[in-house]
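User: Hey, my collaborator sent me this sequence without any context and asked if I could get a structure. I don't really work with proteins. Can you help?
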Amino acid sequence: MTKIRITKAYKFDMAHALPGHDGLCKNIHGHSYELLVTLIGEPITEPGSPKLGMVIDFKDLKFIIKGLIVDELDHALILRDDSPETLLTEMHKNFDRIVLVDFQPTSENMIIDFSERIKKALPANVKLHHLKLWETVTSYTEWFAEDNE
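Assistant: No problem. I've predicted the 3D structure and written it out in structure-token form, which is a compact way to encode the shape of the chain:
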């Protein structure tokens, strides 16, 4: 059977800070992100299947990615969980959507985190092929399964 790659794009806005960075990114700032998710698999050939001819229904992929990433991070502030307690307390007093992570929230580390979340949630018949995360219109990171086997 022929392997097919399918890709779906997702957009969300998110703020973060990079403590210890040697430039302006140490300050809280935001980006309009675009995440491209590419899966690989064989189209379903089971007669009578409502998904006949599909690697995965784009609607099902949207449900997975929105639930794992977009709904959590859209219009959120991501901070490291080892940020000073006084900062976290003040942030929680003033803002609802704060997400704490155990890594420096760079686009590189976020795409690693995304890849791990997505791989666990996919049906067995499809695999995550690659991700592309646009942080700005001129800057993006990529993750490829073949580089991480």
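In plain terms: The first helix runs from residue 58 to 73. You can pass these tokens on to your collaborator as they are.
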